[in-house]
Amino acid sequence: MSDGHQGSCLCGAVRFRTHGALRGVVYCHCSQCRKQSGHFYAATNVANADIVIEGKENITWYEAYAFARRGFCKACGSVMFWEPRHQDYISVMAGSFDKPTGLEGECHIFVGDKGDYYSIDDGLPQFEKSTPSIPVAE
Ligand SMILES: [Zn+2]
Ligand SMILES: [Zn+2]
Q: Could you tell me if 98 and 5 are in contact, meaning their C-beta atoms sit under 8 angstroms apart?
């Protein structure tokens, strides 16, 4: 697959392969994403039909809210997935992908909730909460 990508957690217990174009990277600055990641989220989306995850038994799912859950490697702690319920896609952390990722930044969401120790100055669109094209839990 020429347009395929792959990635893994830090220790390699969880691996994935994707097929097809990846969405631009959305940076989420909400407090949940900040606390779980240690900074902020940077994630792309992949249709469920276009991703194969190996080592699923090594994923711990944190039921963050009724709308979605957050997946990380139970061995090394790498934050990897954000999975909304009843949707046909999964969000995958940009940092989990092996290079070259081909990924590009798209926008920042929940900037109204961002940490107070950094600024956002990359020129990408910023949204106080979210934008209708990006489903999020709130
Ligand atoms: Zn791991
Ligand atoms: Zn968030």
A: yes
Q: How far is the CA of 21 from the centre of ligand 2 (A)?
A: 23
* CB of 103 closer than 8 Å to CB of 95: no
Of 99, 102, 80, the closest CA to residue 13 belongs to 80
Question: Which among 10, 23, 34 is positioned nearest to 112, based on CA atoms?
Answer: 34
47 half-sphere exposure, CB direction, 13 A CA radius: 6
* β-strands 25-28, 105-109 pairing: parallel
122 C-alpha to ligand 1 centroid (Å)? 30
62-121 pLDDT tens trace = 998 888 999 999 999 999 999 999 899 999 999 999 999 999 999 999 999 999 999 999
Give the contacts of 94 (CB within 8 A, at least 6 positions apart).
25, 42, 43, 44, 101, 103
Question: Per-residue pLDDT for 138 more than 80?
Answer: no
